[in-house]
Structure formats: structure tokens, C-alpha cells
Write a structure and sequence with these properties.
Largest sheet: none
Order of helices and strands: HHH
Strand content: under 5%
Oligomer: single chain
Radius of gyration: 11 Å
Number of strands: 0
Number of helices: 3
Length: 44
């Protein structure tokens, strides 16, 4: 979870290197983050 919300230069670069870069707005990304809980499985 910490990496999902990390605002470091390294994580910014990783976010921009994903196949979804530019598709989700920051608001949409934060809505996704809000759905995750520490210790909860991310399996769909």
C-alpha cells in the first residue's frame, strides 16, 4: 500500500511506465487506492 501512495520521483516514473499511464486521472487513481485496505487480498 505504501508504494501505491508514495509520491517519490521513483514511483512517479514507475507509474508513467505502466501500460495505463495517461488513461486514469489522478482522481480515478485515488478512488482505486481508497478501495484497498492494508492486509486485504488484492485478488479479483
Amino acid at each position: 500500500m505504501a508504494l501505491l501512495v508514495d509520491d517519490s520521483e521513483e514511483m512517479t516514473a514507475l507509474w508513467q511506465a505502466t501500460p495505463f499511464a495517461g488513461i486514469l486521472t489522478p482522481m480515478q487513481r485515488w478512488a482505486i487506492y481508497a478501495r484497498f485496505e492494508p492486509g486485504r487480498s488484492a485478488a479479483l
